[in-house]
Amino acid sequence: MATDQSTRYIFLVDDEPIQNEMLKDYIGERFPYKIKTFESGEDAIKEISLNPAIAVLDYHLNSHLPNAQNGVEVLKSFKEMNPETQVIMLSGQDKLEVAIDSMKYGAYDYVIKGETAFSRMENILNNINELRSVKETNNTYKKVIGMLGVAIVIVLVLSVYLVMKFKSYSGI
Q1: Which residues of the chain have pLDDT under 70?
Q2: Is domain 9-136 classified as CATH 3.40.50.2300?
Q3: Contacts for 71-78 with beta carbons within 8 Å, 24 or more apart?
Q4: Hey, where are the domains in the chain?
């Protein structure tokens, strides 16, 4: 299935469908992403070809299905297959080790489920969008500077050529 390059996806991966739906509604009202929800990391990985800009992963994805991958395993797979995807880990655990583990494997941030989780998620998404905008601006500047460099080289080569040509005609 061919995807429109301008379509930006957020993957919400949580084995609790109610959590997925609430977060989908919250994000959908505030951000112009196409949102896909998944109840397992394995299902989300099958769709990685959509190149999600952001993935929100529950830390305990294997709480209902013991044989399923946990959030950190899915995080590692996402980062290996699509390093540009910004991954936000979501967990009911308020433990420093969980946050450190998530960040160690490339999570952009870690959010604890609770009454402030959605507003925190909104702030993180705003930060990710700002980072993306800065990177795009930086890439545009790099391209412009590169083209200016090529133009300067062409002008210099052409100038040297014309000076040499002028010298050969005038006998100098």
Answers
A1: 1-5, 170-172
A2: yes
A3: 71/13, 71/41, 71/102, 72/101, 72/102, 72/105, 73/41, 74/13, 74/41, 74/44, 74/45, 75/102, 75/105, 75/106, 75/107, 76/105, 76/106, 77/41, 77/45, 77/48, 78/44, 78/45, 78/48
A4: 9-136
